[in-house]
Amino acid sequence: MRLFHTILIIPIMSSALWAGLVQVGSDYGYATVAEGLEASLSGDTVFVHPGTYVESGLTVPHALTLIGKDNPIIDGNHSGEILTVTADDVIIEGFTFKGSGLSHLDENAAVRFEEANNGRISHNRFEDNFFAIYVSKSENCLIDNNTIRGLAQTESRSGNGIHLWYCKNINISGNSISGHRDGIYLEFVEQCEVTQNHSTKNLRYGLHFMFSNHNEYNNNRFDNNGAGVAVMYSRHVDMHNNVFADNWGSAAYGLLLKDIYDSKITDNQFNRNTVGLYSEACNRIQVEGNNFENNGWAVKIMANSMDNVFTHNNFIANTFDIATNSRQNFNSFNQNYWNRYRGYDLDKDGIGDIPFHPVKLFSLLTEKNEPALMLMRSIFVEIMDLAESYIPILTPATLIDAEPLMRINS
Amino acid sequence: MTTLLKIIKYQLHDLLRGKWFIIYTAVFFLLTDGLFRFGGDSGQVALSLMNVVLFIIPLVSIVFGTMFFYNSREFMELLLSQPISRVALFLGLYLGLTLPLSAVYLIGVGIPFMYHAGIMTGGYWILLLVGVSLTWVFTALAFLIAVLSEQRVKGVGMTIVLWLFFAILYDGIILFILFALEEYPLEKLTLILSLFNPIDLGRILMLLQFDIAALMGYTGALFSKFYGNMFGSAVAVFALWTWCAIPAWLGYRAFSKKDF
Amino acid sequence: MINIKGLKKRFGRLEVLKELDAQIQENTITAIVGHNGSGKTTLIKCMLGLDKYDGGDISIKDFKLNGDWNYRSQIGYMPQVARFPENLTASEVITMISDLRTGSSTQAEELISYFRLVDEMEKPLKTLSGGTRQKVNAIVALMFNPDILILDEPTAGLDPVSSSLLKDKINAEKTAGKTVIITSHIMSEIQELADTILYLLDGKIFFDGPVDDLIAQTGEKNLERAIAKMMS
Fold first, then answer.
1. Which residues of A touch B172 (CB under 8 A)?
2. Is the Cβ–Cβ distance between B39 and B136 less than 8 Å?
3. pLDDT > 90 in chain A, percent
4. Contacts of A273 (CB under 8 A, 6+ apart)
5. pLDDT surpasses 70 at A9
6. What is the total count of domains within chain C?
């Protein structure tokens, strides 16, 4: 271990040769982080030795590399903000931030980047903060491999894990976030990539997007969040290869889309959600190659959604495959696999010879009258559904998959 | 007690000679095995079997139960002239039918499950529990009808009407009520209505296993709160067994006063 | 001794037994006679507890019938029409009943050979003729050596040989000290077998006394004529 530390420290020390090294710790030059920061010059490295520092209201006004050894704890003692960065080129690595102050007026964060470009927040732990990481009006930052644990009890008394506001070109990757209001929150953010994060057990959304165009999130896992993932009022969002799982409750969604245009949802897994994918007023979304399995409703698509294309998805063991609130349909469903499909394929081209009606009459009835849900799978309901599938009277006659796949699309 | 066991033994002996039982076992076996072969994991197979369980078991139990009771008339007369109590005879007849019917169901469904799936999930146990419970409930109803109605044709007709009522019409009526009284809060009503149909009880117990995702989407807190926890399931199981106990008890009362 | 007091039984609106009183003495053969539907079988079934009577009392050997069933271990019953679980064989029925009564029968084998049924025992009952079934029926009634025998039309359907075998057996039972109750439409048979006659009419006992008395009173030469005379 000692050898490892030496190796780790050598490059830092060597960079300190030309920039200057400020050491913080009870046995070093500065006993508090505040003193260390005060003493540092632009471009310095502040090296914090193990220990607990009960400090808040720290500021970083110039470029700086802030390194913690063995995760020293900076405890804000629940008063105000812990660390505020207002300069470019700041790196924060290897700390444990604890206890930013709860407030109803200020969005107090453990670490805040305010108009600070080219920053990096890596390998830190965040515990019991109001907001953990708050980045505002900044560009070209990297937030990676942090572990963020909140103790949120109620939505009004909790903040977000990673909160971005008016940012551009931020990369959020490899973080693990739980116990906050929203795990990751993006508002007015562009060209960001959210990747390989795990957001779980947050009170509201695992990921929350608002007014954020041209963003991409992929390879993330969102599970057990109060209401799943919400993407709202945005264009050109690329959602690829994520897992949305185990989001339960009366208003819980794997993925909730509202006013989304020209986006892509590809190769994602939607498992065991109350509603897998919910779409309201969305247009021109390509939904392709996703797996919907064991959801209450795989897809709920409201009639104000148009020109969306569902193709090559798998619908397996969902209580309802597609639900909608109207007889109209302006979306296309083609070449999906439906495990409920009972057609045949005489010409053996892998495509069923008769179309599939994914909307059941009963799902329409439960939309109108929720207590009717208790009749699910009743023989009476099955008979009704069967009759409706042959002669659609109430369900959208044009919402069909004319070329249902015979085998699971892998 | 020994007399009871002996009566069960002879009923079993007698029943196992009939082709009925072989057919009934084969239906369950081939169906379950087929569902596994034509795709689907154990969860999906259990789900497909759910409809069979809710449809066929009540029908077979109630129709076969009455016919069995009528056909046991000779056996009853023979035994009642012997030093044997009526309660032992009635229970013997009842268990002599419900035990093999349950066993056949458990074997027919259980064996394919074991060699295809290996591990039994919670849903699978509920499927077995509901199947067995419905067998007992509808056999009890069958006996009640058969004791009360001397005429075979009338008796069998009544069982079919009763089955149609519980299996299909009852839910139609609930749906009608739900939409006719849409303006009113109907949560409690639906909860109470569900207790008065054994098939609905079985169905809801299985829904809690297979469609919990959709049930959780139901904003009616009462329903999901009630049925979403162990207490609700316990109430449903208890209600199901009450559905077995009451007709069986009424049937016995009528049987104990019956002239042979 | 069987004591019947004020016995009432109705089936729906039809009153079958109207406060019937009768006594049946031990070690006698008592014949219950009456026209069709006079309540002979109902009376027998009340004694057996197969029919639940609406009023009155029956006591058998000082044992009151009140829902208990143990007294039936002293009764052997042969119903009018032999009814068995159709899939069983005769020997299975006999084994079953022995098993259920828990006292193994010492007489079954003897009775089987007496009624010449050895070859029929392993065939399913549904394949046997009415007469053969009736003989199986007789074995079931007799095999436990009960103190009381209740035989409802025992010889109906039997061929003459079997019929006389059975009648001999009934007589032998009486000699052995048993009480026998019998119904029959064949008056010559009753005259041949019975000591006492219970004549049922309109749900009551119309005549109760020794057969010989009845014939003597009417001055007719046989029971059939005596009864016909009594009725006119």
1. 380
2. no
3. 65
4. A228, A244, A245, A246, A247, A248, A252, A253, A254, A295, A296, B213
5. no
6. 1
B208 interfaces chain A, CB cutoff of 8 Å: no
Domain range annotation of chain B: 2-256
Query: Which of B3, B258, B260 minimises the CB distance to C100?
Result: B3
Using a CB-CB cut-off of 8 Å, the residues of chain B touching C45 are: 259-260
Which tokens belong to B106? Answer: 């458990």
CATH number, domain containing residue C150:
3.40.50.300
Q: What are the structure tokens assigned to B66, written together? A: 């009455």
Helix (H, G, I), strand (E, B) or coil at A2: helix
**Which is it for the CA torsion B211, B216, B222, B228, positive or negative?**
positive
Touching chains, B (3+ CB pairs < 8 A): A, C
Which residue among B2, B6, B78 places its CB closest to the CB of C84?
B78
**Residue range(s) defining the domain that contains residue C217:** 2-231
Instruction: Count CB neighbours of B15 within 10 A.
Output: 20
| Interchain contact, C88 vs B14, CB within 8 Å | yes
| Chain C residues touching residue B10 (CB < 8 angstroms) | 85, 96
Our CA dihedral for A92, A96, A102, A105, rounded to 10 degrees, sits at 0
Residue C76 C-alpha, separation from nearest chain B C-alpha, in angstroms: 8
Examine the pLDDT at A61 and tell me if it is beyond 50: yes
B200 phi and psi, to 5 degrees?
-65, -40
Q: Tell whether B121 is within 8 A of chain A (Cβ).
A: no
Contacts of A318 in chain B (CB under 8 A): 213
B219 touches C: beta carbon within 8 Å: no
B23 has a pLDDT exceeding 50: yes
Name chain B contacts of C10, Cβ cutoff 8 Å: none
Largest CA distance in chain B: 62
Q: Say yes or no for a CB contact (<8 Å) between C52 and B2.
A: no
**Which chain A residue has the Cα nearest residue B49?**
A377
Helices (H) and strands (E) in chain C, counts: 8, 10
Q: Which of B2, B74, B259 sits opposite C85 (nearest CB)?
A: B74
pTM: 0.78
- What is the distance between the alpha carbons of residues C140 and C144, in angstroms, rounded to a whole number? 8
Confidence check on the interface: ipTM exceeds 0.90, yes or no: no
Q: Which residues of A146-172 are buried (b: 16+ CB within 10 A; e: fewer)?
A: bbbbbebeeeeebbbbbbbbbbbbbbb
Question: Quick one: which H or E segment has residue A240?
Answer: strand A237-240
**What's the burial of A108, exposed, middle or buried (CB within 10 Å: 0-12/13-18/19+)?**
buried
Buried residues in A259-291 as b, exposed as e (16+ CB within 10 A): bbbbbbbbbbbbbbbbbbbbbbbbbebebbbbb
Q: Which of A247, A200, A194, A183 is nearest to A219 (CA)?
A: A194
* Residue whose token pair is 């008016």: A166
